[in-house]
Design goal:
Blueprint: H1 13-22, H2 34-47, E1 52-56, H3 59-68, E2 76-80, H4 84-87, H5 92-97, E3 101-105, H6 114-122, E4 134-140, H7 151-163, E5 167-172, H8 175-182, E6 197-201, E7 211-215, H9 224-230, H10 239-249, H11 253-273, E8 279-280, E9 288-292, H12 297-303, E10 309-310, E11 322-326, H13 333-348
Helix pairs in contact: 1-10, 2-10, 8-11, 11-13, 12-13
Length: 349
């Protein structure tokens, strides 16, 4: 009963096979190989726009490096108070940007609104040189609360940001889950809504170590290759990241893997919601389920070997009683049913 994180799942067989194929024979280093060039170009096809693509190994590096070219060291990045860049990257964005300020903004169920962002900005009036000037709005799709921005919601946020002279960054560690959930195209959930830079994640959804920083305005990427190299994320054997994305994009594997993970979360959420004393905290829109259990149930489940974690954040309405369960492309219906039964048994006892 492994619901600790989608990061706990291994790599999809198709990804492992692609890495093995890329291992056959020599290839130029540092992304100079034909496979890397071809796969970078595939992203332009996927997003229906000519874009600049850079591969890195981790989501934290993708976010930090993307933000580093979007704001000066003295700039300010607005983000949700529960966002990964705020809560889970050990000040990585501050490090990569050289000290840019993160301004956490509250929003229901992990989502920002133009009104909420406007209210936050109102507390930081333009007063050079004392106040950090706002430069970037960072959005998370899907959110850390397992919710999804629609294309219309994204457009409203991006329109507001651009009117305020802000660039828009998107942390897309679970972008695949959002796309599978909404059925919207990759373009509709990114640049067509107004996103300037997307960190497109693969690692949480069946890849081994594969993230892509995608610039829809290629002029913004002019210094990125130097920042990536300086940060130690220019892989010498870049073909092994490219091979993963090659398989990931084939036959919409990225959507199929995410769709299965989402379906398992829906099954889990529905099963838990039917139990007396269990409260689902946020809408289940992707592969994350947030729930509050009766007293003592979580400890009993962990004694049985179940893996999941408490969810405690500045925006936590449950004061530490909430837990997060995450499904993956490897989660089975039987695993979900066993967990729900264990919750029911523990609650009765």
């Amino acid at each position: 009963m492994n619901f600790g994180s989608d990061n706990w799942a291994g790599a999809a067989p198709e990804i492992i096979d692609a890495i093995a194929r890329a291992n056959d024979g020599p290839a130029p280093a540092y992304g100079g190989d034909d496979l890397t060039a071809r796969v970078e170009a595939r992203f332009s096809d996927l997003f229906e726009i000519d874009c600049a693509v850079y591969f890195v190994a981790t989501g934290g590096a993708a976010n930090g490096l993307a933000l580093s070219v979007m704001t000066p060291p003295y700039g300010m990045v607005l983000c949700h108070e529960q966002s990964h860049v705020q809560m889970d990257e050990c000040a990585g964005p501050e490090f990569f940007t050289g000290g840019a300020k993160l301004l956490p903004v509250a929003g229901e169920a992990g989502k920002l609104t133009p009104q909420g962002v406007a209210a936050a900005l109102a507390g930081f009036p333009h007063r050079p040189p004392h106040g950090a000037p706002e430069r970037v709005l960072s959005l998370t799709q899907a959110t850390e609360c397992g919710t999804v921005y629609s294309a219309d919601e994204l457009k409203a946020l991006c329109d507001f940001a651009h009117a305020a002279d802000l660039k828009v960054h998107m942390d897309g560690a679970r972008f695949a889950n959002a796309a599978a959930s909404t059925g919207a195209s990759a373009a509709a959930l990114s640049w067509r809504a107004g996103v300037d830079v997307l960190c497109f994640g693969g690692t949480k959804n069946g890849c081994l170590a594969a993230e892509a920083v995608i610039f829809f305005d290629k002029a913004m990427a002019k210094d990125f290759e130097f920042r990536r190299k300086r940060a130690g994320h220019l892989w010498s054997k870049m073909r092994f990241i490219a091979a993963q994305f090659d398989a990931y994009l084939d036959d919409d594997l990225w959507l199929k893997l995410a769709g299965h993970a989402n379906a398992m979360a829906t099954q889990l959420s529905s099963g838990l919601a039917a139990l007396n004393g269990v409260e689902i905290s946020y809408p289940t829109e992707i592969n994350q389920v947030f729930a509050c259990f009766p007293d003592g149930v979580a400890d009993r489940l962990k004694d049985q070997g179940a893996a999941f974690f408490p969810w405690v954040t500045p925006g936590d309405p449950a004061n530490g009683a909430m837990h997060r369960m995450v499904t993956s492309f490897k989660t089975t219906p039987q695993e979900v049913d066993a967990f729900v039964k264990s919750v029911a048994d523990a609650a009765r006892s």
